[in-house]
Amino acid sequence: MSWTQIPLGPIQTNAYVLTNPEGEALIFDPGGDADVLIAWIEENKLNPTAILLTHAHFDHIGAVDEVREAFSIPVYLHKQEENWLGDPELNRSTAFLGRTKVTAKPAEHIFTKEQSLQIGSFTCEVFETPGHSPGSVSFYFKEENIVFSGDALFAGSVGRTDLPGGNHQQLISSINSKLMELPEETIVACGHGPTTTISAEMDSNPFLNAL
């Protein structure tokens, strides 16, 4: 399988597209610029099967409805944030974008706990990694050696925790107990900025190595 990082939306949030050899694809966090993402998928002759959301802040959901409708595919989200899609106050678009309100229709599939997830030929583990937001999850694809961490873990940093529902100690606990337990060579596909690896963050992330 292969994956592609595509920064989208008002603050260039990383969307990702994971593709198998048959051209089936999973879309992670389509944060905006739906026309750009849809055109890229069509140009590459891909067949999307689902949208997976690491969490429901506005910059991760801005293109959800247009992409969902373009390819007639379902959306997956954690129960803690199922109401955020339709509420600009909860998804923070009101606070950050003013008059521009970001909303989306309800998700078709709701996670209520950690689980193994199979969508077509794709199989992953869903980890609850709250702290940046209460319903944050990470998607770990063991065979592909990659985890889509949303805004939990970044290259050299961690997600902000000053928004409603954020909790710094909970975030650090989530990272240490879930993500840092993955094999060191695991690629971390972050919600913003470059990708990294578990090994690199173990060695040099100041938030995880503070005395």
From TrEMBL:
Short name of one Pfam family: Lactamase_B
CDD domains associated with the record: metallo-hydrolase-like_MBL-fold
Domain Metallo-beta-lactamase: 12-192
InterPro entries: MBL_Glyoxalase_II (IPR051453), Metallo-B-lactamas (IPR001279), RibonucZ/Hydroxyglut_hydro (IPR036866)
Keyword Nucleotidyltransferase: no
Cofactor(s) it depends on: Zn(2+)
SMART domains, alphabetized: Lactamase_B
Gene3D superfamilies cross-referenced by the UniProt entry: Ribonuclease Z/Hydroxyacylglutathione hydrolase-like
Keyword field contains Transport: no
Alphabetical keyword list: Hydrolase, Metal-binding, Zinc
Protein name as catalogued: Glyoxylase-like metal-dependent hydrolase (Beta-lactamase superfamily II)
Organism of this sequence: Alkalicoccobacillus murimartini
